[in-house]
Amino acid sequence: MEISFFPLFFTVMWLLKNTQLPASDAASYLLTAIEHHKHFEHRGFWSCAYSCYVHRGWRPIFFPVLLSPFLIISFGNLLIGVGLFALSCVVATVIYVYLLLRLQLDRLSAIVVTNLIGLLPLLQTQIVEFYAESALFPCIIGGVYHLIQSNYFRHRKHAISFAICLTLAIIIRPVEAVTHLIFVLGLFFFLGCYKRILNVKQIIVVLTLASAALSVFLAACLWNPTQFIDMRMTMLLHYLFISAVVSTLFFYLVFALLSIKKNKVVIKANVVPVFFISFLLVILWFFPYASKTAEWIYRTSIGDVAMATTRLVSQKFPIWAELVLQTDAEGRMIVLGAALLAIAGGVLACMQHQPKVFYSLPVIYLLLVIPFPLFEVLFTVQDINRKLSIAFPALIMAMLIVGLYKGSFWVVRFSSAVLLLIGQFSLLMVGTFSKVPFDPFLKNMMGYSMPRPITIYPNPHGIVEKFLTNQAKKYQLRNIAIAVNPNTVGPIDPFLLSTMVHASKNAYSVPYAYFSTFSPANPLKLSHNKEVDALFLSDASENMGISMLAASAYSKKYASEKNPSLKTFYEFLLFYSQNKLSDIGWKLGPCIMIKSPSPADGLKKMDYLGCLLLPQ
């Protein structure tokens, strides 16, 4: 219990205060889990299990499946189910963090560091907001722990556990799992060969299996390439498929050549079975939805979604400024405190001639988790804080291992870590639950990425859902599109509204009107689209007027916007402000005023106007 008291207490308090379901990307995970739970309610366990495999969201990953048991336990209550899942992620995280730390630190030091890691804002944010990284983190840390403890896969229990962690990591977040573990596995194989536990032939077999699995996946993607919206993606997949096939043949040829001369393995290691099982399970999960998976990865990594949803679209920060920004997201106090402890511990280790603290496997493996995510944040469009939600905690863990090794002045260093824990916990409690707006400096000291729980009465999402339900009955609507700014916190999140409508079993649906490319014909396309019966348009009431002034403001936003969905959103508002909706195939229906929550909830006081648009 002591290894998780502070993180568990903080998470429980956050969940008890929060009254709103996960929004944004997390809402799509919740939507998929709701679909699975409906099968359980109507047809039982096996129907739910089948649904978990065949019913995928836009992101065809395993993460929503993890919520299903908690929805069953909570009898379908979404808030309770998500809360129980969040607590399970905290428990899994602190257990694996503690186990990994105990490989180098004494029990007391490991307990303090575990509590510190469990309180990191980037980590807590993923957990309480139901992002896939909440489950990915314990898989990565657990994988590193079992990799070390497996003694190069000679310990069967840890070898199997590593295979499970690796499989879960890949099917939860495939890109992040590979980028976080690729250097770790590279060093693992190198050391295994250096110590004569593994041989080159075994590594060649693993590489052959990896390239063969990738070839199968890409072949499934290219089975029907016409479904891709971007021809560049089809060309890229062709090149990757050819490269994967050539690599498979090359590695197999190398294996055949090595087999001519028999190489005796000194000690048996289960490296080939471990990776064979993992790759097989990954392929079995993704194969039916290979094309969908490839499109999701492409669009969110280098395609239109990535280019339209990151800070680099509007501005590019210098490297130093970007590092400061990311540090403030995690919290200056914890980052600087861990760095100072690492410096102190490192200096004392050098003075005492104890270099082992620097090249212990936990420290090296944790540091090797960092390079690829850091490169993405600094040099690609993948610059959101969530990209470092695993790398940053790994860095802090490595620094604290160096800072708290047993040696001279350990009591002083340990006491400093305890004070750091108390300070971080106090800042998080005050900054997260205080009704007073937090000072920016203190917010950065705590970690500005940590969200406050939302306690909105009445909840704008509930108000809008009730309004749309009434209009759906009045106008016999079956599908109502949403045109709001998803980059703001008000008045509603389109993903969450869609989830709430689906969960309440209404006769109509609310999809998110997303456009991968912009065209002036988008509004007309929607009005003539048989799948869309109406559109809900909303913005701040002080902006959403019918006047020359409002039209001028929307015209400027429309001209400067690069995101195709937002550009279409501003186009609707531009024609609305000009009273010319009929020019794009729509007419104005009933409207509703949505009151904003008070500033105490961390949101700007602003009322919103929402109007239903009907096709002409």
General description of the model:
There is one protein chain. The chain is mostly helical. Helix content is 63%, strand content 5%. It contains 27 helices and four strands. A four-stranded mixed sheet has the order 1-2-4-3, sandwiched between helices. The model has no long low-confidence stretch (mean pLDDT 86).
SSE map:
Elements: H1 5-17, H2 25-43, H3 45-54, H4 63-73, H5 78-101, H6 107-118, H7 121-128, H8 133-149, H9 156-172, H10 174-194, H11 200-221, H12 231-260, H13 271-286, H14 290-301, H15 304-308, H16 319-330, H17 332-351, H18 361-368, H19 371-379, H20 391-403, H21 410-433, H22 440-446, H23 460-475, E1 480-483, H24 494-503, H25 522-528, E2 534-540, H26 548-560, H27 564-577, E3 586-594, E4 608-615
Parallel strand pairs: 1-2
Antiparallel strand pairs: 2-4, 3-4
Helix pairs in contact: 1-5, 1-6, 1-21, 2-3, 2-4, 2-24, 4-5, 5-6, 5-8, 6-21, 7-8, 8-9, 8-10, 8-18, 9-10, 9-13, 10-18, 11-12, 11-13, 11-14, 16-22, 17-20, 17-21, 18-20, 21-22, 23-24, 26-27
